[in-house]
Amino acid sequence: MSPVLITGLVIAGLFILIAIGLINQIVEKNNLEKARIRAELSDRMRRCANLSVSFPGQMMTPALKLLLTRLELGLGEQLRPLDKKNATLEPRLATLRNAVAKGEEIPVENAPVKVITEAQAKEIRLLMEDLHAQIVWANKQNQLETTAAKRWIQQIQRMMVMLHVEYFSNVGQQALQQGSAHKARLAFERGIQHIRKQANPADYQEQLSKLEASYSHANKLEQTQQQPKLDEPSELAEGLKSLESEDDWKKNNIY
Fold first, then answer.
1. What pLDDT shows up at residue 208?
2. I need a surface site. Which of 98, 117, 157, 255 has the fewest CB within 10 A?
3. Based on the number of CB atoms within 10 Å of its own CB, is 120 exposed (0-12), middle (13-18) or buried (19 or more)?
4. How far is CA 170 from each of CA 1, 8, 115, 158, 161, rounded to the nearest angstrom?
5. What is the rounded average pLDDT for all residues in the chain?
6. Distance in angstroms between the alpha carbons of the first and the last residue of the chain
């Protein structure tokens, strides 16, 4: 065998080894990307399902239930070719398709939640943040039109205001039942302040009127009760500061 032929075979062998290495890298990269996409789709399906069942009944509407069901179904359809061994996926997709087919008649079985503690309010706020994140992501993935996404984001912002109103109203009413007009007045006052600092306070005129009436009632009762010390710490005055602060998630809107 001539030296030229041997050299050619060696070079050819090197090229083959390099090609095999490159092909393996490409295959591995594709497998990792598929695994990443599969994990993300599965996680987002789980989050949509959790939102659908966990949202308090007073905030869950057929339209919102239908939106979450459609988003989960769309994610599942994308996941199916990437996760063919998932035995639970196809039955779940069938359930989602049946629910979507009902349209606005989709059943809403979420139980109402009386928001009376800061922990409850924060938990519901986290659900709203996750709903906001799912809508923004769906819009970026062209699963939800921009017009619809903007409308839902505005609805979430309204729900956030209503969460505060409900919380302060409930705390105030509970304080009245416990005979603490001072704490009740503070609660109603915080609710009034929260509405007035909104960019569109006129949209909450009904809620504002009720809070103002409750505030006036509590204020009159307080005059007949022993005045608290000026330096007495108020748990309510400090509560929910984190809820009322400018949340970073609100800044991630769609433009």
1. 95
2. 255
3. middle
4. 95, 85, 7, 18, 14
5. 87
6. 71
- Both tokens of residue 254? 């769609």
Please report where in the chains the tokens 């105030």 appear, as a residue. Answer: 172
- pLDDT for position 231: 46
DSSP string of 114-139, one letter each residue: ---SHHHHHHHHHHHHHHHHHHHHHH
- DSSP designation for 197: T
| Residue 205, SS3 per DSSP | helix
DSSP state of 239: T
Query: Which tokens belong to 71?
Result: 């988003």
Distance of CA 124 to the CA centre of its chain: 9
The answer to whether 52 and 69 have CB atoms below 8 angstroms apart is yes
- DSSP structure string for 2-19: -HHHHHHHHHHHHHHHHH
Write the CA distances from 132 to 48, 91, 161, 245, integer angstroms. Answer: 11, 27, 15, 17
How far is residue 135's CA from residue 144's CA, in Å, rounded to a whole number? 7
pLDDT band at 5 (very low <50, low <70, confident <90, very high): low
Mean pLDDT of the region 148-161: 96
- DSSP character for 255? -
Statement: residue 13 has pLDDT above 50: yes
Query: What distance in Å separates the CA atoms of residue 150 and residue 255, rounded to the nearest whole number?
Result: 8
**What are the start-end ranges of the H helices in the chain?**
3-54, 62-79, 89-101, 118-140, 146-177, 181-196, 205-224, 235-238, 241-244
- Pair of tokens at residue 60: 């869950």
